[in-house]
Amino acid sequence: MVVTIFANSAAALSCLPWGPADAYLQAAKSDSVYNIIAGELRFDESLLPQSHADNPNDTPPLTRIPAQLSGKMLDGKYFSGRVKVPAVLEVECLGPWCGGMASGTDQVFFAEQRGQDLVIRAGACGGFVFADTSEVRRQVLDCHRGKACEPAMPR
């Protein structure tokens, strides 16, 4: 019994490298429609899931949080179309490990259109949200313009 408990507590989440090009390529091959927006997402951070100390596996696998997304949408070849729209932040948890982000920070979002909802996913192993840096924008624009679009790890 001690070995089983030790093995379970020693298990850790192992994630593959993931970057903006990976998100772009996955969104491009998806049947879903994605909007790429550089801006900020505002939401109540107190609604983010927390791992339960007494039983971390009791954390809900998916938490949906209402949010407001504003910024510039990738329109044609540039981030130029201004948007300010309601959105839903979906935070995934795998046992005690949860995705997450800070409200109001500059990010590049791959927002999935699901019916009337614009959904932003924050996965336990990364997701479709990246810090809004010149490198992230360059990677996204290169992919969008048909230039080199190299995933973080060859697949």
Short description:
The chain is an alpha+beta fold and 155 residues long. Helix content is 19%, strand content 42%. Strand 3 and strand 4 form a beta hairpin.
Describe this structure in words.
The model is unreliable at 1-10 (pLDDT under 50). The radius of gyration is 17 Å and the shape is globular. It has a five-stranded mixed β-barrel with strand order 1-2-3-6-5. Helix 2 (20-29) packs parallel to helix 3 (134-144). It has helices at residues 2-10, 20-29, 134-144; strands at residues 33-43, 62-75, 78-94, 97-98, 106-114, 117-123, 126-127, 129-131. It has 155 residues and is α+β, with helices and mostly antiparallel strands. The protein is 19% helix and 42% strand.
Looking at this protein, list some descriptive labels:
alpha+beta, 8 strands, 155 residues, 3 helices, 19% helix
Question: Could you outline the blueprint of secondary structure elements for this entry?
Answer:
Blueprint: H1 2-10, H2 20-29, E1 33-43, E2 62-75, E3 78-94, E4 97-98, E5 106-114, E6 117-123, E7 126-127, E8 129-131, H3 134-144
Parallel strand pairs: 3-6
Antiparallel strand pairs: 1-2, 1-5, 2-3, 3-4, 5-6, 5-8, 6-7
Helix pairs in contact: 2-3
Major beta sheet, specifics?
A: 5 strands, mixed, barrel
Strand order of the largest sheet: 1-2-3-6-5
**Beta fraction:** 35-45%
Distance between the termini: 39 Å
Structural class category: alpha+beta
Could you tell me the mean pLDDT?
Answer: 87
Number of helices: 3
Classify the helix fraction into a percent range.
10-25%
Give the overall form.
globular
Radius of gyration: 17 Å
Provide the succession of SSEs.
Answer: HHEEEEEEEEH
- Low-confidence spans: 1-10
Number of strands: 8
